[in-house]
Specification:
The complex is a heterodimer of chains A (about 230) and B (about 240). Chain A is mainly alpha-helical and about 230 residues long. Chain A has helices spanning about 1-25, 45-60, 65-85, 90-105, 115-135, 160-175, 175-190, 195-200, 205-225. Chain A has 2 domains: about 20-30 and about 40-135 and about 155-160, Orthogonal Bundle (Rna Polymerase Sigma Factor, Chain: A); about 175-225, Winged helix-like DNA-binding domain superfamily/Winged helix DNA-binding domain (Arc Repressor Mutant, subunit A). Chain A contains 9 helices and no strands. Chain A is globular. Chain B is α+β, with helices and mostly antiparallel strands and about 240 residues long. Chain B is about 30% helix and about 20% strand. In chain B, the strands form 3 sheets. Chain B has a 6-stranded antiparallel beta sheet with strand order 1-2-3-10-5-8, with helices on one face. A 3-stranded antiparallel beta sheet of chain B has the order 7-6-9, with no helix packed on it. The chains are: A mainly alpha (about 230), B alpha+beta (about 240).
């Protein structure tokens, strides 16, 4: 009897959660008041909210969802491109191309493989390489029959991929200021380690070893927490 | 629970590489700041190596975290409208969806017998059989690959089974990805999929194991420096 009641409670809980997700997915863009989130500056959309938006675009070609995604990512991608040396005009153009790519490739987004922000980051990164470097970017082809597959099934589920983002953010915030700065330069400055050394006044060997330490730390953190 | 031997000699057909790309290179690949030549060897190693693919995914997630935190830059007026207007034109285009395969589908297709994985296969313009080799010295042949960017030399080399390379060090960086066969040097043994990075601090004489020829992808940013007693005399003639 008690068990049955408890089960009902759980079911009700699940139903409420699902309803909340469905609400986020369908109505979020229509309501002026977004779903209650902590009122932080530049309040980011949560990873599950982002996944819901991409699914709406993939399944229903939902323009409101796209608009919301655009509002969140486009200004960030523009800032990213400008940090890497694009001028206003080029950054604007590439942002638009990247966001159109998001629309067109929404159906290929797989939440078990990556968080939405990671997916958007890779799209923006590739757009930049195509446009600015006029070089090919050799890519791993996951469909290639010669690819050596993962020995066991991928452990990471959708939930886990989406939680990675949070954990990473925490891990990055725990890096020393100097390590965090080196990581940012490595991603946002398109500089060889030699140039970073020049700019920071650190010897090249020191830049390399500190960067290696910081990266190893982030990677280890992710690995341990996902086990 | 049985566990596969880490090196899988004779056992599993497809063992995982034991020697990996460094975190700095994997992160730079994820950040999109590597040259085409470096990207080619990192991506090709990663085709052999699920561990490095995972690391790249993690480093892409690092990039995404930094993107989340960045101070946003306001878009020009009308930017959203202009994109929204384009979406309508796109809707009639054919669906060009590429889905990520599960590990299973990749495994199912893994017996088609390509020696070279992508992206290397496209750069070669075919599989290993299609390579046109040019003899260099006895026991060593090479085939240069065309990759944009003047700062790197990218080539395949084929060392006859059992042959030793000349003793050498490096003026710059040398990245090696082993494709078939195996070689040893003072630092250890390298087999299919293994990655080795060498610079001026490394003075080695890679020697192919007997059995089958050893084929490697080599990326260098400066000529090697011959350090053997006879080799020294030949240095003026060495391009790479």
């Amino acid at each position: 009897m008690d068990n049955a009641v408890a089960q009902q409670d759980v079911n009700a809980e699940v139903a409420r959660s699902l309803a909340a997700i469905a609400f986020i997915a369908s109505d979020n863009a229509m309501t002026q008041e977004p779903v209650a989130r902590e009122p932080k500056r530049q309040d980011p959309l949560t990873p599950p909210e982002l996944v819901a938006l991409v699914h709406e675009i993939a399944e229903r070609r939902c323009k409101e969802s796209f608009q919301e995604l655009f509002g969140f990512f486009a200004p960030r991608v523009k800032a990213y491109l400008m940090r890497l040396g694009s001028d206003m005009h080029q950054a604007e153009e590439l942002v638009q191309e990247a966001m159109i790519m998001v629309w067109r490739k929404a159906a290929s987004f797989d939440p078990a493989q990556a968080a939405v922000s990671t997916w958007v980051f890779t799209i923006a990164r590739n757009k930049r390489i195509d446009a600015i470097r006029r070089e090919k970017r050799p890519e791993i082809d996951l469909e290639d029959p010669a690819l050596v597959p993962q020995p066991e099934a991928l452990a990471d589920g959708i939930v886990e991929q989406q939680q990675h983002a949070r954990r990473l953010k925490d891990a990055i915030s725990r890096l020393s200021a100097e390590q965090a700065e080196l990581i940012k330069m490595a991603y946002f400055a398109d500089k060889a380690h030699g140039a970073i050394a020049e700019e920071t006044g650190l010897p090249l060997g020191t830049v390399k070893s500190r960067l290696r330490l910081a990266l190893g730390h982030l990677r280890k953190e992710l690995k341990e927490e996902s086990l | 629970m049985t566990s596969a031997s880490p090196h899988g000699h004779g056992g599993a057909m497809r063992s995982l590489p034991a020697n990996h790309v460094t975190d700095e290179l994997l992160a730079a690949y994820a950040a999109g700041t590597l040259s085409e030549a470096e990207s080619l060897i990192v991506a090709t190693h990663s085709a052999f190596c699920p561990i490095c693919r995972d690391a790249i995914a993690a480093f892409e997630a690092v990039g995404a975290s930094l993107l989340d935190e960045i101070e946003p830059e306001a878009l020009s007026a009308g930017s959203l409208e202009s994109v929204m207007a384009k979406l309508d034109d796109l809707e009639d285009l054919p669906d060009n969806v590429v889905r990520h395969p599960s590990a299973k589908t990749a495994a199912a297709g893994s017996d088609q017998g390509f020696v070279l994985p992508e992206p290397l296969r496209s750069y070669v313009g075919g599989d290993l059989n299609d390579v046109v080799w040019r003899p260099v010295i006895r026991g060593l042949e090479e085939a240069e690959l065309s990759v944009s960017g003047p700062e790197f030399n990218v080539r395949l080399i084929r060392v006859a089974a059992g042959a030793a390379m000349p003793q050498h060090s490096h003026h710059g960086s040398e990245y090696t990805l082993l494709l078939t066969g195996a070689y040893r040097d003072s630092s250890g043994r390298y087999a299919r999929g293994d990655f080795q990075m060498a610079d001026g601090d490394v003075d080695h004489q890679p020697t192919a194991e007997p059995g089958e020829p050893c084929v490697c992808l080599i990326v260098t940013d400066a000529p090697i420096k011959l350090t053997g007693p006879v080799g020294r005399l030949l240095n003026p003639f060495i391009r790479y």
